[in-house]
Amino acid sequence: MTLSPETVRLLIIGCMFSMTVLAVFYLRRRELSPMAFVAWGLLALILPVIGPFLVIWLQPGEKRTT
Predict the structure, then answer these.
(1) ∠20-61-54 over CA atoms, to 5°?
(2) By the 8 A CB rule, do 44 and 52 touch?
(3) Cα→Cα distances 20→12, 25, 28, 58, Å
(4) CA distance 32 to 18
(5) Which residues does residue 30 pair with via DSSP β-bridges, in sequence order?
(6) CA-CA distance, 13 to 26, in Å (whole number)?
(7) Which residues 6+ apart lie within 8 Å of 64 measured at CB?
(8) What is the pLDDT of residues 4-56, one digit of tens each?
(9) pTM over 0.85
């Protein structure tokens, strides 16, 4: 099965978007100041391929107890 370049680009963009959403949902579970949340969120957006992995791997802030 051959995929066109446009299809492959759409799949890559979809994966990058999904990873960013995953990182943002992960950050919502952490106890961070608003500035730290923005900074970590921007890292996930600016580095779309590795940023979400860094956000989850480095585990910023404390885990929420609620």
Answers:
(1) 35
(2) yes
(3) 12, 9, 13, 15
(4) 22
(5) 63
(6) 20
(7) 29, 30, 31
(8) 888 988 998 898 888 888 888 888 888 889 898 888 888 877 777 777 777 77
(9) no
